[in-house]
Amino acid sequence: MRTTMFFVFLAVSAVLLGGCKDDSTPTAPGAGSTTYTGVMAGGGVSGSISINIPTPKRAYPSVAEEGDTVAITGTLKINGGATITLTGYHIYLTDEIYLSGGGYSFFGFLDEGNISGTFNSPGGSGVFSAEAGGSGTVKTYCGTYQDNPPGTESGYFNMLINGTEIVVIVSPSSGEGTYWAQGTLTNGTEIAIYDPENPGFPVATGTLNTSNNTVSGTYIGVPGGTWSGAPCN
Questions:
Q1: Exposure winner among 50, 69, 81, 203, fewest CB in 10 A?
Q2: Mind listing the pLDDT tens digit for each residue in 119-137?
Q3: What is the CATH number of the domain that holds 146?
Q4: What torsion, rounded to 10 degrees, do the Cα atoms 219, 220, 221, 223 define?
């Protein structure tokens, strides 16, 4: 899929929680919280992630002005494998997110209802993206892609759908880098993924099959190929 040149390469940095701020005392949470649901891929692993961020006891902007943090939790589900509990914190001044557990460490930023960033795992590194909403609102699909012959490239093709908005994470089996792109869902079934440098040009299209809740389609390029996915588990 690298030959299609339609995914933006997101350089995966080796960010370790041990190098992050550790002198902040978490602020006591207030009433309520927000759940973020998304997908992750890279380092030979693929799955879904859920992050829960409590509302701080003190109201914004006083929280941000004082650099407060709030303890947060998460759940990482490796597709077809283990479920891992994550713990960490959210720094309100910078909207940084830190989570770790089971040999995985996540670093990202919260911005307008979206959390995105990088992770390290025992097998390598990758990227993740999550949108505000539970599993009933944000749908996650874990899948694969494959070049048409004579192409040989293949890898993970993970997708989240939140209303009409789509985020795709692609991780080649070759380990040469993780890619991401955005798209839209039209008429409840029609999927279009766009070239970030030319938002009006769809470089991958497909269908959400509402009868069996699967996704599939094709991508352009030389030689182009196919992709498909099912709900992450």
A1: 81
A2: 999 989 999 999 999 999 9
A3: 2.40.160
A4: 70
